[in-house]
Design brief:
- The chain is mainly β.
- Among the domains are: about 5-45; about 50-205, Alpha-Beta Horseshoe (Leucine-rich repeat, LRR (right-handed beta-alpha superhelix)), CATH 3.80.10.10.
- Helix content is about 10%, strand content about 25%.
- The chain has helices at about 5-20, 20-40, 405-410; strands at about 40-45, 45, 65-70, 85-90, 95-100, 120, 130, 145, 150-155, 165-170, 175, 190, 200, 210-215, 230-235, 245, 255-260, 265, 275-280, 300-305, 310-315, 325-330, 335, 350, 360, 370-375, 395-400, 420-425.
- The protein has a seven-stranded parallel sheet, with no helix packed on it. Strands 4-5-3-6-8-10 form a six-stranded mixed sheet, with no helix packed on it. The chain has a four-stranded parallel sheet with strand order 7-9-11-13, with no helix packed on it.
- The longest helix has 19 residues, at about 20-40.
Length: about 425
């Protein structure tokens, strides 16, 4: 943005306030110039993110590099467990160096606990693990690149690193511990690689922005799933994922966009309970045994788009999604399960594509605002009892004009004879 017009406007205001006193004017204008330079260094969200000074560095196997806010050496929380003795800790030419007698093989528990002046750190490729509370409370830490050699991130490893803006979790990590990234409120994007097999609860509690998940998500228990307590606004489930565990995103009220890939075959109970916004589902939605075991039972999504690759919407899939006002079912879906959309009492309009061949019992039962149903199939899909019971009192079911009599005489459709109307699609 060009700040010059604002600068001269302010100059004229100052001139009117202090007159022609040259000394005061020079000092004030110098101050204004400094403020202007600071303003141009900022984007709309604050200061621009600094570039990691170690982006192009390679550590020797026996050293760790770092920088601090004040240009002074850090005091380690624990000097034991690196795999070798610390020889010296220096800070010269703007870079700190921890030099060890032999290769560094691990970052031990509490290693950098409370090192709140440290801003950047660079590890050697020889380390295999990051221990518990290793960087807990490193409140100035801005960026971390974890080497591909690391396989585990311990409990509370980066907890309360609230200035951490960027972190790379490499493919090779298999476990992420309890509260590992809790309180990392400056992270805007996190990608979890396919290699991860274990994520402890609250690992990302308080994290915001975008989450990309490329690993299977383990089950949670008692409404305490893997991502409970996180503040992510957008989640993308990658093409390598086959299962999303029970309660995975339970109560994530900030989550307003979810995309689930075609590869997913299992979605646990109440996995998205309380999530809002828009859901895009590209996988077949599995059956559940009851309302509360449904894949999206109790979710707060207002819009659901079923992808073109989907052929089946399982039993209880969207039961009790009370905020759902818009659902897009593409041509290609052949089956809508028992209670699939029951108690979706904000749903007002529905289009059933001509590919549908069966609709389960109670599929749209208690959708009390459902007023217009457009069923495009020329042959009435095999129906289930009560599939449209307790919809809006003025509900109409629009079917192909040439198929009106077929619908009115078909089993279970005949229950809605007075609501069936011919329509030119």
């Amino acid at each position: 943005m060009n700040e010059q017009p604002h600068t001269f406007l302010f100059y004229n205001v100052l001139l009117g306030l202090v007159g022609n006193n040259d000394n005061i004017m020079k000092k004030l204008f110098l101050l204004l110039a400094v403020v202007g330079m600071l303003a141009t260094a900022c984007d709309d969200n604050g200061f621009e993110e600094e570039e990691n000074p170690f982006s192009d560095f390679t550590c020797a196997p026996n050293e760790i590099l770092y920088t601090t806010k004040y240009g002074l050496p850090i005091e380690l929380g624990n000097i034991h467990g690196f795999g070798s003795n610390l020889v010296y800790n220096t800070y010269e030419n703007g870079v700190g160096r921890l030099i060890f007698g032999n290769d560094v093989i691990a970052i031990p528990d509490n290693a950098f606990y409370g090192c709140n002046s440290m801003e950047y750190i660079k590890f050697p490729d020889s380390i295999c693990s990051i221990g518990e509370s290793a960087f807990y409370g490193c409140t100035s830490l801005k960026s971390v690149e974890i080497p591909k050699s690391v396989t585990s991130i311990g409990e509370s490893a980066f907890r309360s690193c609230n200035s951490l803006q960027g972190i790379t979790i490499p493919n090779g990590i298999t476990s992420i511990g309890y509260e590992a990234f809790k309180g990392c409120t400056s992270l805007t994007s996190i990608t979890i690689p396919e290699s991860v097999t274990s994520i402890e609860k609250e690992a990302f509690s308080g994290c915001i922005g975008e989450l990309i998940v490329n690993c299977n998500i383990p089950n949670g228990s008692s409404y305490d799933g893997v991502f409970c307590g996180s503040g992510f606004s957008k989640v993308t489930i990658g093409n390598s994922v086959t299962s999303i565990g029970d309660y995975a995103f339970y109560g994530c009220g900030s989550l307003n966009s979810v995309t689930i890939s075609e590869s997913v075959t299992s979605i646990g109970k109440q996995a998205f309970y309380g999530c809002i916004g828009e859901l895009i589902v590209n996988c077949n939605i599995p059956n559940a045994s009851s309302h509360q075991n449904g894949a999206f039972w109790g979710a707060g999504f207002s819009k659901v788009t079923i992808g073109n690759s989907v052929t089946s919407i399982g039993n209880y899939a969207f039961s009790t999604c009370n905020s759902l006002t818009n659902v897009v079912i593409p041509n290609g879906v052949t089956h809508i399960g028992v209670h699939a959309f029951s108690d979706c009492n904000s749903l007002t309009n529905l289009t059933i594509p001509n590919s549908i061949t069966s609709i389960g019992w109670y599929a749209f039962h208690m959708c009390s605002s459902l007023t217009n149903i457009y069923c495009k199939a020329t042959t009435p899909p095999s129906g289930g009892g009560y599939m449209f019971h307790n919809n809006a009192s003025i509900r109409k079911i629009y079917v192909p004009r040439a198929s009106v009599n077929a619908y009115k005489s078909a089993e279970y459709w005949s229950d809605y004879t007075y609501s069936i109307v011919g329509y030119d699609f």
